[in-house]
Design a protein that fits this description.
single chain; 9 strands; elongated
């Protein structure tokens, strides 16, 4: 059952900023009343029912601070989000004292505003008296029944939001189409925020420039992360790497594994964090994508080593990060969906399309920001062009072979991403034989087992 949408009052004297805020709030799934100053906002608030107030701090005729004071003087618990281009820390402290729920510094990124709206509405929902809840026939539902709304609806081009209740609280399902529309806007406007690199990524970049980087420097950095140090020691004692004696300290592990291998394994451990999510609707998808990613990277490493097609460690890490763009997009969507418990097939189809469409551009932008080598950046674009180097072309073909083998092992892509070349075509281009392929497969499976211990 669909109740009326949450109603947001926007007070902003700058017309362009007002239009931008109104557009974002509608993408989020809200009805919007937008006014030019605090006096008009207070008049609108006194004449209608709203679920949230979004106000600029500095406005003519009545400031945002005065507007918030007037609303709180009415004993209202309505969430208030304040924006400002030049607010100081004392302004923030005073606004919090008055009872403002959130403060956003201009210029405001659309994604940042959506998150603020969602948090403010969610907090207010637990305190909202029944007389202020959106009217719905769900109100008459018996206590023992639970109403489950559809995940999303699209009606007449307007983005809607589905509401449902128990007698204790209101539940909201964020419209997935609104999230994807906002994501596309962020990507096209250049406001999509990329994550910062891990320290290990910086060390890996140093290793690319200086292959003779001292093992002592590698050890000193890895010692700062006990989890990585423990992992390196454990890996050096697996059947894949084990020597004549058992390793019990990090320095010996680095000597046995080699600088490049141990840094790659540390990078693997940290990269896995991007594939982890607490969102119940996406946990299975993230886990499946990680298993496939790790296998493909291990397979590319072994094919490169066995057939002498380049540096196996470079090939491993480049292929490990090839799909980083789609994972970052998935994380954005998951972080924006709130607590949606499940997704239907239409929703998953929408997620697949946006991830496949934009994974290349996001992956390229991210690896450039992290100062990855050009061959890694080119691999993340998923494109083979006349300007693509021979090494990148080989990596693209090796990745395609490895993805076909992943499918054979039951590690299919949950996003349904297409594989560019057939197994036979890629093998013919690289001159690979079936027996070499199977030997690489056995070692890759062994290496994946060592990496997951």
């Amino acid at each position: 059952m669909t109740a009326e949408l949450p109603h947001v009052l926007i007070a902003e004297d700058d017309s362009l900023a007002r239009m931008s805020l109104e557009k974002t709030a509608k993408h989020f799934g809200c009805r919007v009343t937008a006014v030019r100053n605090g006096e008009e906002a207070l008049s609108a608030y006194q004449g209608e029912e709203f679920d949230l107030v979004l106000s600029d701090l500095s406005m003519p005729r009545l400031s945002g601070h005065a507007l918030a004071q007037a609303i709180r003087a009415d004993d209202s618990i309505i969430p208030i989000v304040m924006t400002s281009a030049d607010g100081e820390i004392h302004d923030v402290v005073e606004l919090l004292r008055v009872g403002v729920n959130d403060y956003l510094q201009k210029p405001i990124r659309p994604g940042e505003l959506m998150r603020s709206l969602r948090v403010a509405l969610d907090r207010a929902r637990h305190k909202m008296p029944s007389s202020r809840r959106p009217k719905s026939s769900v109100e008459s539902t018996p206590v023992e029944e639970t109403v489950q709304p559809p995940v999303s609806e699209l009606s007449g081009g307007a983005l809607e939001q589905s509401w449902a209740y128990t007698p204790q609280k209101v539940q909201v399902t964020v419209n997935l189409r609104g999230i994807v529309a906002q994501l596309r806007d962020d990507l096209e406007s250049g406001t999509f925020v990329l994550p910062t690199p891990k320290p290990i990524t910086g060390l890996w970049a140093q290793l690319q420039k200086d292959p003779n980087l001292s093992g002592d420097k590698v050890v000193r950095l890895l010692e700062k992360s006990p989890n990585i140090a423990r992992r390196a020691i454990a890996m050096s004692n697996t059947s894949f790497f084990r020597g004549t004696r058992r390793v019990s300290n990090l320095k010996d592990a680095v000597i046995r594994l080699g600088n490049r291998t141990v840094v790659n394994e540390a990078q693997t451990l940290l990269h896995r964090e991007y594939f982890e999510t607490q969102h119940p609707a996406l946990q299975e998808l993230f886990a499946a994508q990680w298993n496939r990613t790790l296998f493909v990277a291990a397979m590319v490493r072994e094919l490169t080593r066995l057939n002498r097609l380049g540096d196996p460690e470079n090939a491993y890490l480049a292929s490990l990060f090839q799909n980083v763009g789609e994972i970052i997009l998935l994380r954005y969507i998951g972080n924006s969906m709130g607590s949606v418990p499940t997704l239907n097939e239409d929703d998953m189809g929408l997620i697949r399309r946006v991830c496949i469409e934009h994974r290349g551009s996001v992956g390229v932008a991210l690896l450039r920001k992290w100062n990855f080598p050009e061959e890694c950046i080119a691999l993340a674009s998923y494109q083979e062009t006349s300007q693509t180097s021979l090494r990148v072309n080989r990596l693209l073909h090796l990745c395609d072979i490895s993805k076909h083998l992943a499918d054979e092992q039951g590690l299919e892509s949950q996003l349904g991403a297409p594989i560019e070349r057939s197994m036979a075509e890629a093998m013919q281009v690289l001159g690979l034989r079936e027996d070499a392929l199977r030997r690489s497969l056995d070692r890759a499976l062994l290496l994946v087992g060592a990496s997951t211990q």
